[in-house]
Amino acid sequence: MKSNALLSLLSDREIHSGESLAHKLGVSRTAVWKHIRKAIADGTDIRTIRGQGYQLVSALDLLDRDIILGQLNASVRERIQLTVLDEVDSTNAEVARLLTSAPLPVVLSDCQTSGRGRRGRNWASPKDQNLYLSLGLSIKGGFSALDGLSLALGVAVANAIEQVGGGEVGLKWPNDLFAQGQKFGGILVEIQGELQEGCVQVIAGIGINVHMTQAEDVDQPWTSLDKRWPDQAWVRNQLAAGMITQILAAVTEFEAGGFRQFRERWQRRDIFSGLPLVTRDGELKGVGGGIDETGNYLLKTAEGEIPVRAGDISLR
Length: 316
Ligand code: BTN
What we know:
Elements: H1 3-10, H2 18-25, H3 29-41, E1 46-49, E2 53-56, H4 65-70, H5 74-79, E3 81-85, H6 91-98, E4 105-109, E5 131-140, H7 149-164, E6 170-172, E7 176-179, E8 182-196, E9 199-208, H8 225-228, H9 236-257, H10 263-267, E10 276-279, E11 285-291, E12 297-301, E13 304-308, E14 313-315
Parallel strand pairs: 3-4
Antiparallel strand pairs: 1-2, 4-5, 5-9, 6-7, 7-8, 8-9, 10-11, 10-14, 11-12, 12-13
């Protein structure tokens, strides 16, 4: 049996039982199952619905836990506890609830009812469109060892997106993701509680507009991956697997050597480099000068380079 025959039967994106597929293709149910497994391993988004059958999901771009797990290396798969939900208040909040029972909880949800952004903002989280991903990370060292972590995560997420396709992903300090001058994603890092056995519990939440069509409650200009790079097939399962892989690799590197080793990689993506900037409170004006070794943004002023430690910077 050719896999194409199987995929063309599935292409109506209805649910097909193994029995009906076997009958139509003139093969055994075991042969169907083997071809489904092979197609999934080759990257085709096929959902297995227990007791019902199989469904081709890529055009709908449905989130599917098994597909994501299938795209992870065994070493990553074994480290994480992956939860994929239809709806949740916030994936960061869900990870916070799971942190006590799971060593490395990773939560994805198809939508969020109270998605949160930086500085107390709301994060628009409509259903079926975007990626809402959070990881509960245990970072070795004290709180000071966290300097620059969120920037290192920005590098990891940008790498994961570029591996799928599209074009260059830019970073706006501290950790907004930009494409061709517009924001399509952000990272919210929240520190959880006390130091535990020399580790700090950190929740890293990543929001990426993938197929965002409209958002009434967004208070800043935005774009989405499929608007910026419409020729690319953006598959949320693939993006999620890539981000989980890149983030865990970045955390290992960060724990071993701190932010310093990410500095160059971050600066290559800096959308503000050389541009006239002003801090949010309007107090400091200068030209974008990149970041220092702990992740502060450097403003070049007449008095020299001044590090900005927190807050937002914008174009003058
Ligand atoms: C920003 O303000 O730019 C950061 C946005 C972070 C949004 C993500 S979506 C997944 C996770 N859950 C949340 O409630 N927020 C983060």
